[in-house]
Amino acid sequence: MLPERESFFQQGLLVMILTGPVFLSPVAMEWLIWPLLLNALWCLRPVIGKGFSEVLSRIWPAAMLLAFAGWSLLSALWSPTQAGIAWFWSLAQGWLAVVCFIALVQSLVRRGINLQQLLWYTAVLVAAVALFSVLWQLLVVGKTIGYRSFRLYSAGYESFANLYNPIDAGLYYGVFATVLVSVLAGTSKQSVRVISVVALVPLLVYLVLTYSRGALFSFLAGCLVIMAFGGRRRFLYALGCIAVLSVVFVVFGDTIFQAELDKGFNGREPIWAYGVELIQQAPWLGHGAGAIFEYHIPRSGVSYPFAHNYLMTLWIHYGLIGLVLFLGSVLSVLWQCWCCRDSAGSRLVAALLVFGFVAIQSYVDELVRVPHQYWLLIWLPLGMYNFRKAFLDKGFPA
User: Do residues 215 and 207 lie in contact, with contact meaning Cβ atoms separated by under 8 Å?
Assistant: First the structure.
């Protein structure tokens, strides 16, 4: 495969994965694992030539991630359920897909592709989809902005742009809103600024109308990272985006605030308490891959199959060892980004990683899976980091 054609194929595949949640069906998203696998096998050629240990020595956060992957697979040995073996193969398939995705992103970084620019173009496209979805629901379908009337049925037109869940929709659109804020804070090109501001409006409106606090707090956390990474202009742009989000809250006023007050923790306290009980039973090794989490609300007939907190889920399944390995890979990347915080790439990687880290605290059930929108929360920024010198000094063209 010629280098130019290979790069074009990889960029197209990455855009398909990023936009797949709104343009493709879940089944079609799963089929993307095959071109990912073929691309990863092609990218292994230089790794085999240099030696695996040499590569890992240069990207040690990835080594911690691979250690976490190995530990999670090993935990199937002490799973208390007969489904442990089935979970082993399911995890193996998920990790294969995740590693292939990270290899795809790193290959683009190694080729000098400006991922920030590619993500910006993708974010503008996704913003157009968000605008269509909001206008369709409010003007054509006639939905109101009430909590129950809009939130549960605000997923595009039939199967197009249908994310099936308002929390997932908020997280998905929030990722691209964070990309736009990062680019807006770093570029000096007037046309890019204008387009970024225009594209942010439908994304922020959609984000608020999902009534998802996890997505809102994640976006605010990403903006705070952009502010913290220095520069008066970056601070003002990020502060301006937070102000715009606050204005949207004021416009929709009592409807949103009252809904938040009514929800409280939305019934998560007993779920978390049940998770703590499971952790105390096996704090170090965990209960193993495939361990059943099923909290039944007394006298209601309602049950919850996951802990509504991904870190708690990791601790339950893989113990403190697995949790530390996962946190080590994420926090080490954040530290390296902070050490070179003057570059545009480090700012974007850190903002997306903090967005994802906050997002997984409230709802996400599993990150290790075949192609899925949750990949954008952790695996995308981790993949953008690993060849740091090739990307973090490369910002959006002025």
Answer: yes
pLDDT in 10s for each residue of the chain, 398 residues: 445 667 888 899 999 999 999 998 888 888 888 888 888 777 665 554 454 444 444 456 778 888 999 999 999 888 876 666 778 888 999 999 998 898 888 888 878 888 999 999 999 999 999 999 888 877 877 776 665 555 555 567 777 888 888 889 999 999 999 999 999 888 888 999 999 999 999 999 888 888 888 898 999 999 889 888 866 666 666 677 777 767 766 665 445 555 555 555 566 788 888 999 999 999 999 998 878 788 877 666 677 778 889 999 999 999 999 999 999 999 988 988 888 887 778 889 999 999 999 999 878 888 999 899 999 999 999 888 854 454 444 544 43
Read off φ and ψ for residue 337, nearest 5 degrees.
Answer: -65, -40
Q: Where are the alpha helices (DSSP H) in the chain?
A: 3-23, 26-31, 33-50, 52-58, 60-74, 84-110, 115-135, 147-150, 166-186, 190-209, 213-228, 232-263, 269-281, 310-339, 344-359, 379-385, 388-391
Give me the torsion for CA of 207, 358, 159, 94, rounded to 10°.
170
What's the rounded Cα separation, in Å, for the pair 245 and 220? 9
Paired strand residues for 157: 160
Per-domain residue ranges of the chain: 3-391
